[in-house]
Design a protein that fits this description.
4-stranded mixed β-sheet, 3-stranded antiparallel β-sheet
Length: 153
């Protein structure tokens, strides 16, 4: 049976550390479980890779949208995973390597992304104007085969 899979995700900002940070929470969890073979970032990336492998075995098309807290030029393991699984960044396909910022005005970072499997061909991809009253990120809107998938982070 062919099916589609959509995942909305948040990748913690692993450069942001401190007592109340998400990364510190991950570090404490790993420490409590006595897992010392992986960093929180490596564990997150390994979990994503495993989850995607499982879904690819069962699904025809995959769409992943979220706050990745990474720019394309960072070339992390996350980007490698997406490429290996043939999941393309639809904003990069639309805008090239200079994707408009998805963060607050003045910041040039495009850290929010939508990845889609090869069979999902977007008709439209647009990064909407930032509105600080809605979020600290600009929403991305895309249309696939006449139906809109709207994802605001």
């Amino acid at each position: 049976m062919e099916k589609e899979f959509q995942l909305r995700m948040y990748r913690p900002h692993f450069n942001s550390v401190g007592a109340g940070s998400v990364v510190e929470g991950h570090r404490r969890y790993l420490e409590d479980k006595e897992i010392d073979t992986l960093t929180p970032e490596e564990m997150w990336e390994d979990d994503l890779r495993e989850h995607l492998k499982n879904e690819l075995e069962e699904c025809r098309e995959i769409l992943i949208a979220g706050d990745f807290n990474e720019r394309l030029e960072m070339k992390s393991r996350t980007w490698t995973t997406m490429a290996e699984m043939h999941l393309g960044n639809i904003a990069q396909a639309r805008y090239g390597h200079v994707i408009p910022s998805t963060r607050y005005p003045g910041d040039k970072s495009a850290i929010d992304h939508i990845f889609a499997s090869e069979g999902l061909r977007p008709q439209k991809v647009e990064i909407l104007e930032f509105r600080h009253d809605l979020s600290d990120h600009a929403p991305i809107i895309s249309s696939f085969f006449g139906g809109d998938i709207f994802y605001a982070i």
